Fold this sequence. Notes:
Radius of gyration: 24 Å
Largest sheet: 6 strands, antiparallel
Structural class: alpha/beta
Number of strands: 17
Strand content: 15-25%
Shape: globular
Oligomer: single chain
Helix content: 25-40%
Strand order of the largest sheet: 13-14-12-15-17-16
Amino acid sequence: MGNESSLENAVNLILLDSSRRLISVSAPVVGELRVTKMLEEAADEFMLERRYPKNIVSDIREIYSKNARHSGVDTSFLDGQFQWLYNTITSFEGDHDSYRARVKLMGERIQARLFKEILRAQGLNAVCLYPERIGLKTDDNFENAKPLLNAYELVKSNLAHFLEDESLYMVFPGFGGVNERNQPTTFKYGGTDLTAAFFAAALGADVCEICKDNVDGVLRADPRLIPEAETVPDMTYREQAEYGAAGAEVVLYDAIKPLVSRNIPLVVMNTNKPNGPKTTVKNNGAEYRGITGIASKNTWVFSVEKGGAENELGFGSHLTGIFTGYGISYSLSIESEAMVNVLVDFPPERSGSLDETRNLMGIIENQIRNSTFLKPDRVNLYEHGVITVVAEGLNKLKKAYMLEKALAEAGEGIPILRSSQGSDISRFFVVNQSDTQRAVRALYDISKQI
Length: 450
């Protein structure tokens, strides 16, 4: 719920169905302004310069104030919220990870309080509940936390008396929880999806609805590459998980897990088009029903060659430590005793512009090449695109050969650098990054004939 209209539409959704009593909210996104990213910048500025980031905080406050005024809410409640934010930003004591987490989570905390005030302005009985009060406990991974297994029962127990009041609407800040010491933690970006799924699973909800601004459910392909890509009306949990992991992460991958074992359907819909197309995710069989989706993502491959590397103690850990130092996730592929490949997929929140990403990749490439510890014989950096076709029953589909054929016949042909059956419901193709869009188009067009 980023801007005034999406907040208004979210309230209208709740007014349409009184069973929508548990609401998890995310921090605002208004155009190019993401409050979570602004809070990250504020935290970094204070850590580096010990200077309160007045301008950033002022811009953040204006976003909330504008949304409150549009919703007919007195903005005076924001005084206390932004005093809380001031205290949080100025609380840094050298605890980098926990500090960044508690600052970032303030976006959702203030949004939850705002949404409670909006509901009350509509004459509804609403309460704002924070994770430390209800027991949403996580592990200690401050910026990539996971809920603890015992948190489900703890939250269910702590919410029992709130649920007894059938007129009460409960608003929760998304994106994180607290560890066993009640220190704020955040999930991955998009973590409000996980928060919603967590509450649905903890309380045995009939359905978990995830509302996205300006996204009509899950699409069959990236609309930036295929503008006419249509909404997938139904998909299985496995398809959604595979599709998200392959790059089409409309819904956070982690959010699927709590719902699967409890068989709770997930509905993905557009906040601003409540009667528009939507996607329902549930267990509905493993038979082939057509191609569900075609996902794509960019992958940078660092190919590091060194004779005898397998006998050098610490070679692999030192190599991967370079990526860890930049906060970059990676996967390793051992091609031979003398070659190691490091694969890097950049998530949307880290990618920036393509030029910025290429610049960073080049810096890392040079750092590896010039490492006095690694002393590699050769370092090459490749830009690849990975396209994944997802469908239940794909491994048994006799017409699957048409996928490779479509790539070979696209224009002058698209070289397939590598292809494989990723799982029994997916097949992936590695192409040159410059061929990614053409490859997605070719696979999307042929998918309608399979």
